[in-house]
DNA sequence: TATCGTATCACAC
DNA sequence: CTAACGGTGTGATACGATA
């Protein structure tokens, strides 16, 4: 039997959030544009022009607001429904061409190109690139490597002006192709090597990938642990991270937000927490899972002593694992009431679902091995279908509240229209939001 | 001493 | 209102408690 060596592609949308906005609003093209995180907190996506102007990733918006204004730039609140919808369209297009796909994040996926020879793999990559540009106006970079880590690195190299044409192939064997180029790259660009490990490696005289691959694997394992060892082996072309077509169900689900305004009242917290539980419950049911533990937590300021950050949380183990938002909300409110302190200025709250088991476990296995479950809830299924069809929260639980504006709601003053997912936001007089 | 559970770190995006 | 700084998830490691 013929054994293939592995060849993996990584498709990565360039400046994804900004590119989505530009796809629907051509006036944003060729301009400094940034997209902001929740509550318009900090910069999470930048157009090329914004990068060139020196606006850093992750910087708080208020620090660059004036600068952006000076260069005739635009800041937008993030519009997740739009990005999620664009993402699923892009992923579908890629999947139609290469069925072996692992979706890694909202803007990235791996594709298994092992069946293709080197030259044909490049052809496939260019075709993906062209299709996404034509069909969705989304520019992407594609990296090809013998392993996922090589492919990620290759896509980073493909983004550089010198790496042009948007595709970079590192899957050729050492000594050929762009292998020499790879050895010259900074370790900081490698998937899995963040700020801290970069610092520690540099102290040890390791600056480039070539330096790193020159060190004995023993030394890497000893001083930096199993993760970096795996990374090193992947860079050498030995697969250590499996290609996973189907995603693993989550082991934990977190829903939390910083509040847009000042929150003091228990009632507002109940609304916020109920909303978080609702979102978490939706994700739980998407995974066909049940949760058996729920935790509620908050962060707050004491106005009498503003320097001290109060934070507290508590959790409760459910009598039976469930995916029922109503049950989960009941417990969550109970926990919230036990940790609520009057007089604090609440900044953020959240909930965590854990002890997650598959929903098809309806009976406890050998005693104590699995939590008791009461099975998936039919009512929830119906609710999900209604909300999917008629829009989020068409049916919801009462404790979420029904105000248009509440102090705990996020602020996002500069959000674009939900072009693809909200009929009510379609511009009436002009197609595609153009003028 | 081995193991367990939990907190913290580090990273990604 | 004159400060403001994101959310979700995983895995490894460190550490204290426990048997």
Describe this structure in words.
The protein has 13 helices and 13 strands. It is globular, with a radius of gyration of 24 Å. Helix 4 runs antiparallel to helix 5 (118-136) and helix 11 (266-286) runs antiparallel to helix 12. The protein is 37% helix and 21% strand. It has helices spanning 16-24, 48-52, 61-70, 80-97, 118-136, 148-159, 179-184, 195-203, 209-214, 217-235, 266-286, 325-339, 378-390, and strands at 8-13, 33-36, 43-46, 74-77, 101-105, 108-112, 140-145, 167-169, 253-263, 289-302, 305-322, 344-354, 357-358. The chain has three domains: 1-172 and 417-435, Alpha-Beta Plaits; 185-248, DNA polymerase, domain 1 (Orthogonal Bundle); 253-400, Dna Ligase, domain 1 (2-Layer Sandwich), CATH 3.30.1490.100. It is an alpha+beta fold. It binds a DNA duplex (13 and 19 nucleotides) through residues 16, 36-42, 44, 58-63, 78, 104-108, 191-197, 225-227, 250-258, 262, 350.
Supply database-style keywords.
DNA-binding, 13 strands, DNA polymerase, domain 1, 435 residues, Alpha-Beta Plaits, Dna Ligase, domain 1
Q: What's a quick, concise take on this entry?
A:
This protein has helices at about 15-25, 50, 60-70, 80-95, 120-135, 150-160, 180-185, 195-205, 210-215, 215-235, 265-285, 325-340, 380-390, and strands at about 10-15, 35, 45, 75, 100-105, 110, 140-145, 165-170, 255-265, 290-300, 305-320, 345-355, 355-360. The protein has about 425 residues and is α+β, with helices and mostly antiparallel strands.
Distance between the termini: 60 Å
CATH topology of the largest domain: Alpha-Beta Plaits
Helix content: 25-40%
Average pLDDT value? 89
Radius of gyration: 24 Å
């Amino acid at each position: 039997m013929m054994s293939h060596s592995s060849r993996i592609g990584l498709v990565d949308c360039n400046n994804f959030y900004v590119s989505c906005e530009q796809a629907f609003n051509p006036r944003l093209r060729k301009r400094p544009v940034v997209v902001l995180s929740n509550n318009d907190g900090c910069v999470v996506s930048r157009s090329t022009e914004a990068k060139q102007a020196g606006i850093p990733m992750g910087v708080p918006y208020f620090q660059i607001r004036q600068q952006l204004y000076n260069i005739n730039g635009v800041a937008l609140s993030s519009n997740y429904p739009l990005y999620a919808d664009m993402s699923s369209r892009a992923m579908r297009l890629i999947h139609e061409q290469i069925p072996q796909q692992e979706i890694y994040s909202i803007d990235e996926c791996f594709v298994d190109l092992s069946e293709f020879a080197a030259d044909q793999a490049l052809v496939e990559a260019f075709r993906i690139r062209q299709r996404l540009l034509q069909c969705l106006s989304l520019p992407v970079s594609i990296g090809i490597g013998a392993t996922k880590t090589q492919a990620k690195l290759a896509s980073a190299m493909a983004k550089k002006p010198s790496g042009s044409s948007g595709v970079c192939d590192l899957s050729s064997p050492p000594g050929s192709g762009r292998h020499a180029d790879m050895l010259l790259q900074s370790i900081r660009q490698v998937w899995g090597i963040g700020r801290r490990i970069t610092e520690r490696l540099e102290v040890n005289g390791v600056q480039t990938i070539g330096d790193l691959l020159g060190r004995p694997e023993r030394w890497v394992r000893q001083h930096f642990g199993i993760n970096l060892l795996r990374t090193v082996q992947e860079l050498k072309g030995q697969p250590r991270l499996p290609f996973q077509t189907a995603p693993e169900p989550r082991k934990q689900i977190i829903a939390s937000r910083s509040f847009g305004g000042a929150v003091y009242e228990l009632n507002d917290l109940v609304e916020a927490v109920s909303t978080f539980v609702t979102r978490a419950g939706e994700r739980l049911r998407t995974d066909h899972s049940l949760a058996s533990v729920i935790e509620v937590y908050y962060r707050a300021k004491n106005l009498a002593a503003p320097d001290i950050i109060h934070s507290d949380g508590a959790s409760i183990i459910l009598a039976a694992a469930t995916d029922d938002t109503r049950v989960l909300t009941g417990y969550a409110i109970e926990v919230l009431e036990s940790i609520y302190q009057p007089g604090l200025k609440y900044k953020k709250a959240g909930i965590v679902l854990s002890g997650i088991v598959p929903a098809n476990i309806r009976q406890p296995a050998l005693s104590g091995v699995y939590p008791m479950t009461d099975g998936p809830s039919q009512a929830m299924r119906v609710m999900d279908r209604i909300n999917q069809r008629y829009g989020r929260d068409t049916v919801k639980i009462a404790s979420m509240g029904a105000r248009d504006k509440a102090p705990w709601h996020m602020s996002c003053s500069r959000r674009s229209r939900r072009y693809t997912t909200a009929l009510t936001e379609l511009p009436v007089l002009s197609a595609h939001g153009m003028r």
